[in-house]
Inverse folding.
């Protein structure tokens, strides 16, 4: 490990603007590069140079594997990480957020895909959540991933959790906002921290947070929707639609009710 090195600097490959913004806010210097992550021969000298400068980097093989969905599925299949569940259409789907430092993987959030959108934390039993965490961290171990955030898709079947995909990097919005609303955990800040070689402590969710997609852009001020209290809007980046609105509740049922009751108003569908 490199605890004695300057940890106020991080290395980002094909940097996410959200991580760049957080690093700037935190006063962390960023060294970055944009390259084709599928080519190990290009990655190796670049990563070697960054490591020699005292930065924490991932092995080229890990980055190449996680950039290739088919390679991830081969790894899952060849190592029998997921049961042969056949068709998984209609089965509950989850997204799992992890932060890795020195090869240790911490699950910081499990989010469920619901008929109306997203719910965090996913309403799972302790045993099921443990199974999901175990299979995701086993996959990351097999890839050799060492530092940074990862986003993994999991489908729950009667035979057990089935990994449907995994990539390095932050989850798409609005997942980071859900983690923040439900438990106060800042995923981007945690990612910058582990990329600097520091441990993180995930906040335990104290309530549920739900997100639903907007049907059209919503005018907002300071992140809150007009006269509707406790409703946040997460704008979509680029041209990926008008974004999402996020609410909190004390239970999954309460979250579903809030989303249903607010959809007409917030999504602009009221007559």
């Amino acid at each position: 490990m490199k605890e004695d090195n300057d940890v106020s600097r991080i290395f980002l490959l094909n940097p996410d603007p959200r991580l760049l913004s957080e690093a700037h806010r935190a006063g962390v210097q960023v060294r970055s590069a944009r390259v084709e992550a599928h080519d190990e021969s290009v990655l190796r000298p670049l990563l070697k140079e960054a490591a020699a400068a005292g930065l924490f980097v991932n092995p080229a093989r890990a980055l190449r594997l996680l950039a290739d969905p088919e390679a991830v599925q081969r790894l899952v299949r060849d190592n029998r990480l997921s049961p042969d569940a056949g068709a998984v259409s209609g089965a509950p789907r989850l997204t799992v957020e992890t932060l890795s430092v020195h090869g240790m993987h911490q699950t910081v959030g499990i989010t469920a895909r619901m008929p109306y959108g997203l719910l965090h934390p996913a309403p799972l039993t302790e045993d099921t959540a443990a199974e999901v965490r175990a299979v995701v961290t086993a996959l990351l171990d097999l890839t050799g991933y060492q530092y940074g955030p990862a986003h993994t898709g999991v489908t729950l079947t009667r035979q057990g959790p089935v990994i449907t995909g995994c990539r390095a990097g932050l989850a798409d919005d609005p997942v980071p906002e859900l983690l923040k609303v439900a438990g106060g955990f800042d995923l981007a800040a945690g990612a910058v921290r582990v990329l600097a070689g520091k441990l993180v402590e995930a906040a335990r969710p104290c309530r549920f947070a739900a997100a639903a997609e907007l049907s059209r852009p919503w005018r907002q001020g300071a992140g809150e929707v007009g006269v509707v209290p406790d409703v946040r809007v997460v704008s979509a980046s680029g041209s990926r639609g008008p974004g999402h609105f996020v609410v909190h509740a004390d239970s999954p049922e309460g979250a579903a009710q809030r989303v249903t009751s607010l959809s007409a108003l917030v999504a602009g569908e009221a007559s």
In short: Residues 150 and 168 are 4 Å apart (CA to CA). The chain has two domains: 10-204, 207-270. The longest helix spans residues 126-143. Residues 1-7, 221-225 have pLDDT under 50 and may be disordered.
